[in-house]
Design brief:
Keywords: Cytoplasm, Initiation factor, Protein biosynthesis. The radius of gyration is 39 Å and the shape is elongated. It has about 230 residues and is α+β, with helices and mostly antiparallel strands.
Length: about 230
């Protein structure tokens, strides 16, 4: 027989208080007799877990493994095996290839997963990964970020200013950067765009062998622009 008892609310300073400090709402207790053992079951409403369980978002993609498959991760029924010395062993099962790798104290690494059957090689995977990371690091060091430097001219640039600006153009090109040559017109100078074009053509002639014109002179608003890239 089970009797359900509604626990009365306590009062504190004339106000109703929760039956338990850690819970809010109405508490229901079920008193059960089971073979002489008395059990109490409590149920609360409005209770919240302090530390919610972390769950992966519903639409989040599953975590994917990166890098080549190694040893037990190779699942193909058959593979084409290359030995530790580079010899072509032939088509074998991954289990047989694993035995050979273990005997040599090395790893079985899948190097061509899209081949039919996949191609695997017996090698020291730790050493292979280290050398691969070293090559990638050296390649990143050799990569140069090409910047675009701007050199500004005026339609009436005199000889001295022209030589100074051309030294800057030469220096930028020698460093492997691109140069954006701009020539701005003011007021009535817009009526003499031919003078600006002749000046930029002179710049293009003076950098022959060191740079090449990528974008011929063209108007952008009130300025004429020409892009020069390094010759190498």
């Amino acid at each position: 027989m089970t009797r359900h008892i509604i626990a009365p609310q306590r009062r504190h300073n004339g106000k109703a208080a929760s039956p338990l400090p850690s819970a809010r709402g109405r508490h229901q207790f079920a008193l059960k007799a089971d073979g002489g053992t008395v059990r109490f079951a409590a149920r609360t409403s409005g209770y919240r877990r302090k530390n919610p369980i972390a769950r992966r978002p519903h639409n989040a993609p599953p975590t994917r493994e990166t890098g080549p498959r190694v040893n037990e991760r190779i699942r193909s029924p058959e593979i084409r095996l290359i030995g530790a010395e580079g010899e072509n062993v032939g088509v074998v099962t991954p289990a047989r290839a694993m035995e050979m790798a273990e005997q040599a104290g090395l790893d079985l690494v899948e190097i061509s997963p899209n081949a039919d059957p996949p191609v695997c090689k017996i090698m020291d995977f730790g050493k292979f990964k280290y050398e691969q990371q070293k090559r990638e690091s050296e390649a990143r060091k050799k990569q140069k970020i090409i910047e675009v430097k701007e050199v500004k001219f005026r339609p009436n640039t005199d000889t001295h200013d022209y030589d100074v600006k051309m030294r800057n153009v030469t220096r930028f090109l020698e460093n492997g950067d691109k140069v954006k040559v701009t020539l701005r017109f003011r007021g009535r100078e817009m009526a003499h765009q031919n003078l600006g074009r002749e000046l930029l053509e002179r710049v293009a002639t003076d950098i022959e062998g060191l740079g090449k014109v990528e974008n011929m002179p063209k108007m952008e608003g009130r300025q004429m622009v020409m892009m020069i890239g390094p010759a190498k």
